[in-house]
Amino acid sequence: MHEHSLVKNLLRQADAIRRQHDAKRVDEIRVEIGPLSGVEPLLLASAFKQLACEEIFCNAQLIIDQVELVARCNACEKQFVIHDFDFRCADCGRGVDVIRGDELQLVSVSLASDEPATTGKTR
Asked: MF terms per GO, please (predicted)?
């Protein structure tokens, strides 16, 4: 299950951000997942629950935002959402380039310092 290695990488990135901002712990990790990313959101969430057991992550939440598959036509340059994995322009029928929806992306990390009222967010 490659979701475990993806979560390990997310935790490493979040910990680096936590150290950079001298925060006590990570409260939230937000990611975006596209339908062509090859990542199953439920498996990613399950792997996160299993692996986020260190003190700095013990109460952290993983927020998963699923994004639409967006393409741009190679001929008419129209941008549109792809439905039913039909990779042709809805207007002219030509080929397209995917411009969003084929990635897993770290969007933000919410941090907590020693003071409970202080929360930092980074993008």
From this structure: nickel cation binding; zinc ion binding
Helix (H, G, I), strand (E, B) or coil at 75: coil
Helices (H), 21-59: 41-51
Residue ranges of domains in the chain: 3-112
Tell me the pLDDT of the chain averaged across its residues.
91
Q: What is the phi/psi pair of residue 110, to 5°?
A: -95, 130
Tens digit of each residue's pLDDT (9 = 90 or more) over 50-85: 999 888 999 999 999 999 999 999 999 999 999 999
Class of domain 3-112: alpha beta
User: Residue 76, annotated ligand binder?
Assistant: yes
**pLDDT < 50 stretches in the chain:** 117-119, 123
73 is an annotated ligand-binding site residue: yes
**What is the C-alpha to C-alpha distance for residues 98 and 94, in angstroms, rounded to an integer?**
13
Q: Contact at 8 Å (CB) between 46 and 3?
A: yes
Q: Is 53 annotated as a binding residue?
A: no
Write down the pTM of the prediction. Answer: 0.83
